[in-house]
Amino acid sequence: MQSTFRFSSALLGSLFFTLTSTVCSSQSADNAPPITVADQTSFDDNSDTGPVLRGRSRGNGAREGGRSRGGGGSDEGPTVLDRQFIEGKLPRGVRYVSDVLFKEVDGLELKLDLLLPAKSELEKTPVAVWIHGGAWMRGNKARDLRRFDQLVARVLRRGVAFVSIEYRLSGQATFPAQVVDCNDAIAFLHRNRDQYNLDVGSLILMGSSAGGHLATLVGVTHAKGIPGFSSGYDSSDVHIMGVVDFYGPIDLLKLQGKRDAVDLSSDRSPEARLLGHSPRLRPESARLASPSTHIDPESPPFLIFHGDQDKRVPLDQSELLLSLLQKHGVQSRLVIVEGAVHGDEKFDETSYNDAVLTFMDSLLRESPAK
């Protein structure tokens, strides 16, 4: 492994440094061919922000075990995990609590799944909340757990609960309903923290693609009390320690500007479906829905992942996120995965999961004692 380190002058901790490197799995032969993954049709990816790491994966040995993949596109797969996945992919002793109703709205039931690590019932568990991708118009709470099965298992082995939540899709409600739903799921976890032994003072948001957008937006606005973003619960009781963003959109106006000529009156892009109109028809609404609008020195630390071959959400979206966070002195790191397209399975390889776990460990060490 050859690495070149460039330490940033920004106010970052020792973990958050500028790094350019070629990353190979310790389990892979040096001459193994790079993995080739076909581009996918769904609009959901993940990205991380901060000092920049460039990584190139080699060989199938970069993963711990095989992959269990859910459906994609129009075939989303089942909304709960099957026994084969639980017994074959998850650590022994994990408690799986599925389809927990956290909200009813407009005749819809919104649910979440909890994966609880094997721990003492007297010990409060830090929480990672996952928000699924799918262009805000598809996907479900179980699909991403299958796509990121290695990451899920390793987070659980760290003694951290993994919670995957639903939200209203753009065909069911327009923005900001999705942000309200995510905040209501967090409020539910706070109200039921004793039942599930959760430490909601140690909460990390994670998500891919559209879910990365929502995780980022909730992360940078959660404590601000923005009208229309929550149902009114006291967010001061919940501390969002950090955000792991996999290739999420950051600026909806700039994202649409990357598309070919758009008829604003008939715009059917994912961001137009989210907002209920083309972003350029009502730019103030698009700015409100863009995480880039809300970043300030109080934003939580970020780890961002993005593929340099992503054509659906261009890499410059995550580069913008990184630059804004660094401008405000927020701990942040961006991992650029070379050769990776949107939704690429490379993002669940060991080397990138290592970065997530290192990030989580650093946040948990800094968490105030409860």
From TrEMBL:
E.C. designation(s): 3.1.1.3
SUPFAM superfamilies the record matches: alpha/beta-Hydrolases
GO molecular function list: triacylglycerol lipase activity
Annotated region (Disordered), positions in chain: 27-80, 266-293
Domain BD-FAE-like: 112-323
Keywords: Hydrolase, Signal
Signal peptide as annotated in the record: 1-25
InterPro entries: AB_hydrolase_fold, BD-FAE-like_dom, GDXG_lipolytic_enzyme
Keyword Transmembrane on entry: no
Stored Gene3D superfamilies: alpha/beta hydrolase (3.40.50.1820)
Domain of life: Bacteria
Protein's UniProt name: Lipase 2
